Amino acid sequence: MNYNDIANLIFPDVTLSTDEIFDRYPKRKLKEGQMVTRFAPSPTGLVHIGNFFQAFISYNIAKNTDGVLFLRIEDTDRKREKVEAKKVLYDVLDNFDMKFDEYQTLDGADKGDYGPYVQSQRVEIYKAFAKKLVSEGKAFPCFCKKTEGKEDVLKLRETKFVEDDEKEYDPCRNLSYEEIKKHIDNGESFAIRLKTKNQGNERIKFNDLIKGELEAKANAKDFVILKSDGTPPYPFAHAIDDTLMGTTIVVRGEEYIASTPAHIELFEALGFKQIQYCHNPLIYKLNELGNRRKISKRYDPESNMMFFVENGYPKEAVFEYLLNMINSGFEIWRKNNPEKSWKEFKFKPSQITTVAPIFDLVKLNDISKNVISLISGEKLFNYWLEWAKVYDESLAKVLENDREKFVRVCQMDRDGKTKPRKDIFNYAMMKDKFHYFFDRPVKFNIDDEDREKAEEFLSEYRKNFKMPSSNEEWFESVKILAGKLGYATDNKLYKANPNEYKGNIAKACEFIRLAITGEKDSPTLFTIMEILGEEEVKNRLNVKF
Ligand code: GLU
After folding, report:
1. Distance of alpha carbon 510 from alpha carbon 493, whole angstroms
2. Spatial distance between the Cα atoms of 117 and 389, rounded to a whole number of angstroms
3. String of b and e for 63-98 (b: at least 16 CB within 10 Å)?
4. Could you read off the pLDDT of 87-128 as tens digits, one per residue?
C-alpha cells in the first residue's frame, strides 16, 4: 500500500513538513538539572483547585531548578472555549502571582520562542504530524460516523477489540487508496486513528516521578488522533506540544494515568523521546460521615480558586496550605522556620504525597490566621482595602475616607508587646469582626443573668468617666470601682469564695467591653476606646442591654 499517496490524498493542503516544524522549535539549551515544566489548562470558566495544584507543583519544580515554566492554553475543544473563560484563568493566575516565563498574552502576543502557546493556533502543526503518521502507515482515516445508522460499526469495533483483539474486521483500518478516494469524493468527513501495533495482551512499564515504576496494560485501541473537524484530542496535542516545546516534566492529575499507555504508544509512533510524568494525587474532601469523595465543582465552592480571591484569603496562606497538603515535610519545616517565606522551602517532587490529600477549610483557616497575624497593620489595611475595592465598594469608600482610623484598627495588638491575635483568616470577615468600628452595637452578646448586674455596674462606671491615658491606668480605675461595688479584684480570693462577690474583675471588664463592642471578647479594649474617642465611648457606656 502506498501510504504516502494516501496521506497526500487526505491532506492535500498540508504542505508543512515535520522537519520544517522541528526547525522552528530548536532543542532548548538547558544546564544540568534544569527542568522545563508547564501548566496546560483548558479554559473552562474556572480554575479548579486540582489544576492549580498542578500549576503550583510545576512552578516549584521550575523555580527550584532554575528552569522554565510556561503556560499553554488547551482550547482545542472549541465548544468549551470562550474569551471570558480565558480571562478568568489569567485573572486567577494573576491574583496568585503565578508568573510564567513563556505564555501568550490575553491579546494574543506570544512571549517566548516556543509558541503559539494556545493550541487552537497550532492546528497546522497537528495536521502535519497526522499526515506523517498516515504516510508511514501508522495512522489511517476512519469514515465511520455515529450518525447514519453506523453506530453498530463503531460498537463492533470497540467490543470486538476488547473481546478478541481482532482489528482486521475494522472497515476502515486497511482501506485501499481507491476506497478512500471514493469516500472523499463522496464528501464524507473522516477522523484519523492511530493504528495500534499492539494485540491487547502486552504490558508496559513507565516511571512516574511521584509513584515510581508503574505497570499497565499496553494500549491496543486505534484511538482518534485527529477529529473530523481537524482538531486533536488531548493525547495527540500533548505528545506534539510537550515535545516541541521542550517540556522535561509533565505534571498532571492522576486521572491521566489510565491513558498513559496510549500516550506512550503515540510517543513511540511519532518517534519522540518519552517525557517524564508526574501524576499528582486528586484532592478529596471528607463528607459528613467521614468518607472521602473527590472535591467537586458542584458541591464545594472552595474547589474554585476564585473562592479564595473573593473571600480575601492572602495568597501566602493558600500557598502554605497547598504545600501542607502536598508535602508533610513542609509542616515540620514551617515549625522550625516560623518567620521564613514558603518560597524558601526546598520542594522536591519525589516528596509529594502519594496518599490522596484531603482538603480541609478549617486547616486552611488556621494557616491563614497565622499568616494574617504576622502582617503589619499598615499592610493589612492595604490588603483589606484592595480586596474591598473589588468586592465591597461601599466598604472601600468608608476605609478610604477614614484611612487613619482603620489603619489603627488593623494595627491593634500588633505592637510586638502582646502576642498577635489569630482570629482573622480572610479580608471578607474583617468588617464583621470589627463591626463596632463601623456602627454602634445594637446587639449584645450578654448572658441573660448578667444583664441587670452589667447595667448597674455601667451606670456607676460612666458617672465620672474620663478617657484613661494608658491601659494600666484604665485597668486600675476599673479595679477600684469594681472593688467598691462588690467585685473581687483578686482572682484567688474570688475562686475561694465566689458567693461573696458579684463577680470577679474580669466580669466587670466584660461589661465595659460589651457596652463598647457588643462582644465578650475583643482586641485590647483600651486601644479600641482610644480609636473610638472619649465622646463615642461615653455614648456607648450609656447602654440598655
Ligand atoms: N488540558 C488538560 C487538563 O486541563 C491538561 C493536562 C496536562 O497537564 O497535560 O486537564
Report:
1. 19
2. 33
3. ebbebbbbbbbbbbbeeebeeebbebbbebbebbeb
4. 999 999 999 999 999 999 999 999 999 999 999 999 999 999
Q: How remote is the CA of residue 69 from the centroid of ligand 1, in Å? A: 15
- Full residue range of the structural domain in which residue 315 is found: 285-373
Pocket mutation for ligand 1, best pick of 42, 69, 93 (most atoms within 8 Å of C-beta): 42
Is 480 among the domain residues?
yes
Give the residue from 321, 354, 373 where a domain finishes: 373
Residue 421 lies in a domain: no
Do β-strands 110-111 and 103-104 pair in parallel, antiparallel, or remain unpaired? antiparallel
Rounded to two decimals, what is the model's pTM?
0.89
Number of domains in the chain: 2
Among 289, 274, 310, CA closest to 47 = 310
> Ligand 1 — pocket residues by CB below 6 A?
40-42, 51, 74, 238, 250, 252
Residue 527: give its domain's CATH number. 1.10.10
Q: How far is the CA of 26 from the centre of ligand 1 (A)?
A: 24
What is the Cα–Cα distance from 327 to 351, expressed in whole angstroms? 6
The answer to whether residue 299 is domain-embedded is: yes
Looking at 357, 373, 389, the residue that finishes a domain is 373
30-62: per-residue pLDDT in tens?
Answer: 999 999 999 999 998 899 999 999 999 999 999
Which residue has better confidence, 183 or 347? 183
Residue with cell 454602634: 440
In a domain, 489, yes or no: yes
